Amino acid sequence: MFTGLIEDVGELTGRTPLGNAAKLAVRTSLPAREIKLGDSIAVNGACLTVESVAEGMVRFHTLNETLNRTNLGAVPVGGKVNLERALRFGDRLGGHLVSGHIDTTAPVLRVGHAGEDIVLTIALPEALRALVIPKGSIAVNGVSLTIADLDDASFSLRIIPHTWQATNLPQLAAGSPVNLEADLVGKYIVRGHALAAGSKLGMDDLHRAGF
Q1: How far apart are CA 43 and CA 137, in angstroms?
Q2: DSSP characters over 79-91
Q3: Of these four, 96, 104, 111, 184, which has the most CB atoms within 10 Å of its CB?
Q4: pTM over 0.85
């Protein structure tokens, strides 16, 4: 489990195909002494297992399923990736609960500005329409962000300069694919309501419930 608060922006230094998988090598400033084999680290929001670690370098074994369902197969060697180590009991939850299981990818539509804030507009996939709400949380490349504006085809996020500079989001441009994970709590609400009522939960239901 993660919080969506990025600890380091690493560099993808290698992606080596290996049958139905690949080896990813990431250069990072995270301290090697605090990382163990088998630890979970979110890479652009996707939960991966540490296969080897040395000072300045972490390697992961990644299935093709993960590469195909996320943007990790498209990040160029030399590209930047967001890194976050798993949450420990007792840690502050500064973002929101993020599982590290990417729902889908979607393209960036626009990168703009509103005063000092950056406005990021992303296409809204059909599969996520029932899972996002205005002022709700969403993880974008593993970054916990709040939805500022929402319509049937897209959603926008207003990002403060600190978050923008402390993540790999400045690499984004129109057409860039981003990893999306909808709010975990919202998924349980939608699933539970669908099972109880035998129908899909709509936005009106969420608004009536106070969300």
Answers
A1: 19
A2: -EEEEEEPP-TT-
A3: 96
A4: yes
Which structure tokens are listed for 30? 């995270």
Query: Which residue type occupies 53?
Result: V
Phi and psi at 196, nearest 5°, equal: -75, -40
For the chain, residues with pLDDT lower than 70 are: 191-211
Which residue reads 């090598």 in tokens? 25
Q: Are strands 154-159 and 117-123 parallel, antiparallel or unpaired?
A: antiparallel
- In Å, what is the CA distance from 11 to each residue of 30, 50, 69, 80, 181? 12, 15, 20, 5, 22
What length is written for the chain? 211
The H or E element that residue 27 is part of is strand 21-27
Q: Which two tokens stand for residue 150?
A: 């929402």
Give dist(CA 173, CA 107) in Å, integer. 9
Residue 191: per-residue pLDDT: 67
Domains parsed from the chain with CATH numbers: 8-85 (2.40.30.20), 104-184 (2.40.30.20)
